[in-house]
Amino acid sequence: MSRSISGFSKMSKRKKLRWIVENFFKDPENVMQELVSYWHKNEESQKIFDGFSENTISNYFLPYGVAPNFVINGKTYVVPMVIEESSVVAAASSAAKFWMERGGFQVDVLSMTKVGQVHFNWSGDKEKLLRVWDDLKETLYKDTESLTENMRNRGGGILDIELLDFTSQEPNYYQLKADFHTCDSMGANFINSILESFSKSLVGFMKRHPVFNEEERGVEIIMSILSNYTPECLVRAKVECPVADLGNFPDNMTAETFANKFYQAIRIAHIDPYRAATHNKGIFNGIDAVVVATANDFRAIEACGHTYAAKDGQYKSLSHCTVENGTFKFWLDLPIALGTVGGLTKLHPIAKRSLELLGNPDAEELMKIIAATGLAQNFAAIKSLVTTGIQKGHMKMHLANILNTFKATDAEAEKATAHFEEEVVSHHSVREFLESLRGQSVGS
Ligand code: MEV
Predict the structure, then answer these.
(1) What mean pLDDT value characterizes the chain?
(2) What's residue 50's pLDDT?
(3) Distance between Cα 278 and ligand 1 center (Å)
(4) In this structure, which of 21, 145, 146, 347 has its CB flanked by the most CB atoms within 10 Å?
(5) Nearest CA owner, ligand 1 atom 2
């Protein structure tokens, strides 16, 4: 058995898989068959998936669900969601329906600015650099004209370039910080290409400009890369209604008590980072599911959201709530950089269908849909937490999953569902119940 290999990336997919199963699995033939069974039956389609990444040996399936009844700025959507966690889609759907009956989600995109940086070292007279800054900036714009032409024609491009001095924190360290508008694309390639062009122009400019002496002509570029923190690419999703219209809650909880407990749950997530992390995780349950369904970059979107949540120096809730003058208001401010063109958005066949299902939104509209889904998810989680607790809903799905693992028949599942209405669901308790029904062991 060998656990290391050279030339792996050059091997055919089948050979890669063969090497993997033979060296890492006890029953290679079965595993080979199983992983091959998840290859797409259409070779052309499989080629598309293999093209997304490297060293692919199979496809990894996740459920593709939908949450209907999302009314956003008066328009009704069915939202596609890719997520492995049970109850998330059900929760989004129930919150969407709840707010559909109370006016829906009001969502505004507040700004669309993306950010990129060139980090560089330079030791010289800063006054001279400031004196030539306008010339340098003009050179940076000019040298990228051909790269930005298309985007400018679509209404985007470079919005601004700043020179930032970080030398008090790190010797000789400066930054070019640029703002971009990338229209309907996420814009990562566009921004990174421009930043690399900026670096070259910066080096050439400093080398040539007569104001600098011999020592000041050298610039050391550290790196040129977009920032995933885009606080100015911001969307706000909001719901509100009179407290009295919130309705009835389990165990005779009044709408007023619900509103106050809900408000306090949000306050707690503003006060305590331990709670804030879980609270925001719940928001991202909804956000990520739509982000993945539309083939956007969920790591970038998570990184941005969590950085924004810590913008005041302490990690806090991304959502806010007020209960004032008899009105319940609940909203989410979300920085989110995404695209509806470029990247995998049209290459991934299911992502393409997700966008079609949403009516082929532009980037602004998709930002709104995703923010509304995040808010809905958060509403559903807090609603359960301050009323019944989340386990009740979770356990239903959990029970269904356990029944599946024991290959329960429909009749057994029906009996189990009735039985576990009042009983605690666990792997052990479901097995015992099935054994009592079947009068024999069901295995583990
Ligand atoms: C579980 O995936 C998400 C929740 O924990 C979110 C929350 O606590 O707000 C239910």
Answers:
(1) 96
(2) 97
(3) 6
(4) 21
(5) 282
